[in-house]
Amino acid sequence: GEPGSKNRNPFIASIFHETNLAETKGSGIRTMRTLMEKSSLAPPTFESDHSANLFTTRLLLHHFLNETDLQWLDTLKEFELNESQKKGLIFLREAGAIDNSTYRQLNACDVLRASNELRTLRDKELISQKGKGKATYYIAGNNLNTEPLELNTEPLELNTEPLELNTYGETLNTYGETLNTYGETLNTEPQSLKQELPSELREKIDSLGERENDSNKIKNIIYELCSLKSYTLKQIALILNRKENYTLRNYIVPMREEGKLQYTIPDMPKHPDQAYISI
Question: Which of its termini does the chain have fewer beta carbons within 10 Å around, N or C?
Fold first, then answer.
């Protein structure tokens, strides 16, 4: 939601104000924006979820539109972007995604203008829309390269040595071996996730059969798992050896409705980095 000055605890707020430990209600965010803009820093963004008692602040601690940013934006000249769109794309590059609310905060604009400018970026395939309605957000599109530019200032060194064809052949064989190893690494990912868990929790997970139908037992394991740290849906499904859609439908959604789990990014439910943590 939009940042505002609604007190979560009016008694504490009153004490801080009366003892001169806090400024006038609602002045903090405005002051942060002003000071960061004066220092040429990227403006902060805020996400507030009163129902979950969660407040998130994003501070991109680098100079906004620095030399690297300008060089990156220079690669997008053909798209004729305005200043607001440039800010939005730089934020997306740093955070991985952006939504209408964040775009409005960055550019101090209304919903209509933000929607129109985001739509233009989408039509130019600089961003790609995900989700629907209030859950809509945007990630990098086909025409947007979010990789940082690497400027090589070292002089080129020409190799004057003759090529050795036999060595090249050996390199190809090694490459084939690397591909096989890669496949093995993917298969062991669930095991690597389990290794970081306490032994008691690992034993509970290992005791689950593929046909385990005690939903409360599995929910308790998920709750204990997400009490350690946040996990994505994919990670939870891998650890439990269940399919993602099945895990989401039968456990994650009910646990959120029961108030046992919450999003780590509540204002963007379909964010690519969305994860869950126990309440």
Answer: N
* Gap between the Cα atoms of 71 and 87, Å rounded: 14
The residues pairing with 98 across neighbouring beta strands, listed in sequence order, are 138
Other CB atoms within 10 Å distance of the CB of residue 189: 13
Same domain, 54 and 76: no
Domain span holding position 127: 67-140
Residue 107's CB is within 10 A of a number of other CB atoms, namely 20
Asked whether the predicted pLDDT for residue 76 surpasses 50, the reply is yes
Q: Is residue 225 part of a domain?
A: yes
CA 54/CA 48 separation, integer angstroms: 6
Rg (CA), the chain: 24
pLDDT, position 269: 78
Same domain, 195 and 272: yes
What CATH number does residue 127 fall under? 1.10.10.10
Instruction: Flag the least confident range among 177-181, 203-207, 219-223, 256-260.
Output: 177-181
Q: Is 258 exposed, middle or buried (0-12, 13-18, 19+ CB in 10 A)?
A: exposed
